[in-house]
Write a structure and sequence with these properties.
binds pyridoxal-5'-phosphate, TIM Barrel, 9 helices, eight-stranded parallel sheet, alpha/beta
C-alpha cells in the first residue's frame, strides 16, 4: 500500500529531528516492523543509516532496498544467525559475549570483510539478560581469544536507559555509559581511532543522550510513527 500523505509525515518527522541533532551525531532510523515503502521515503529524504532488530526482517529487506543503505543490527543477535547478515551489515550494535564476537569474526572472514561492533552495556534499572557490566567487558577484551580476532573492530559502546519519565535517572544512566566508554578508550583503545561511538538515545530520550555525549542516536517511532 502506498500512502502519499502518510509518507510525507515520515519525511517531515525525519527533517525535524535532523534539525535538532548536531552534525557530529549520527542518526540511525530504526525501521523495525516498518515496510520498505516507509524506508524508501526516509531514504528519499536523504537518510542512509537504518536499524533493524530481527535477522529475518533485515535479511528480507536488504536485497530489496538501495545498496548504499548502511544497515545497523540493533537487537539481540543469536550466534546461529550471524551468517545471514555478515555479508552486508555495517554495524552490529549489541554485542555482549566473546562467543558472539568469535562467530561474527568467523562469518566476516568468509566474506573477506571486517565487521564493526559495539559492546552493549546494561545501564538501566530494569532486569534484562542482555548487556555487559564493566567486569564482563574487561574479561572479553583481555582474553586471548579476543586478541586473535582480525575481522572485527570494536567501534564503541551501546546502551539503553530505563523506560521512565524520571529525566534525572536517564541522565545518570547515559553518564554511566559515557564513563564506561572513556574507561575502555583509555585502557584498551587509546591508539585506536575507530573506537569512537557512544550509541545511546531513542525517540523519547535522544536529546538527553546527546547532552550526555551520544555520538549515535537510534530513533524509530518519532520518525516512522508508533509500531503496531
Ligand atoms: C526499537 C529500538 C529503538 C527505537 O525505539 P523508538 O522508541 O521507537 O525510537 C532503539 N534502539 C533499540 C535497541 C530498539 O530496539
Amino acid at each position: 500500500m502506498y500512502n502519499k500523505a502518510l509518507n510525507m509525515i515520515i519525511k517531515n518527522n525525519l527533517l525535524k529531528i535532523l534539525k535538532t541533532i548536531p552534525e557530529n551525531v549520527k542518526l540511525v532510523a530504526v525501521s523495525k516492523t516498518k515496510p520498505n515503502e516507509d524506508i524508501l521515503e526516509a531514504y528519499g529524504a536523504g537518510q542512509r543509516i537504518f536499524g533493524e532488530n530481527k535477522v529475518q526482517d533485515l535479511a528480507a529487506k536488504q536485497p530489496q532496498l538501495p545498496k548504499d543503505i548502511r544497515w545497523h543490527f540493533i537487537g539481540h543477535l543469536q550466534t546461529n544467525k550471524v551468517k545471514y547478515i555478515a555479508e552486508f551489515v555495517d554495524l552490529i550494535e549489541a554485542v555482549d559475549s566473546i562467543k558472539l564476537l568469535k562467530e561474527i569474526n568467523k562469518q566476516a572472514s568468509k566474506h573477506n570483510r571486517t565487521i564493526n561492533c559495539l559492546l552493549q552495556f546494561h545501564i538501566a534499572t530494569e532486569e534484562t539478560k542482555f548487556g555487559l557490566d564493566m567486569e564482563e567487558a574487561d574479561a572479553i577484551l583481555l582474553c586471548d581469544d579476543f586478541k586473535k580476532l582480525e575481522n572485527i573492530k570494536i567501534a564503541g559502546v551501546m546502551g539503553m536507559a530505563t523506560f521512565t519519565s524520571d529525566k534525572n535517572l536517564i541522565h545518570s544512566e547515559f553518564k554511566t555509559l559515557r564513563k564506561y566508554f572513556e574507561q575502555l578508550k583509555q585502557k584498551y583503545f587509546s591508539d585506536k581511532e575507530y573506537f569512537k561511538e557512544i550509541s545511546m538515545g531513542m525517540s523519547d530520550d535522544y536529546q538527553i543522550a546527546i547532552a550526555e555525549g551520544s555520538t549515535m542516536v537510534r530513533v524509530g517511532s518519532a520518525i516512522f510513527g508508533a509500531r503496531g
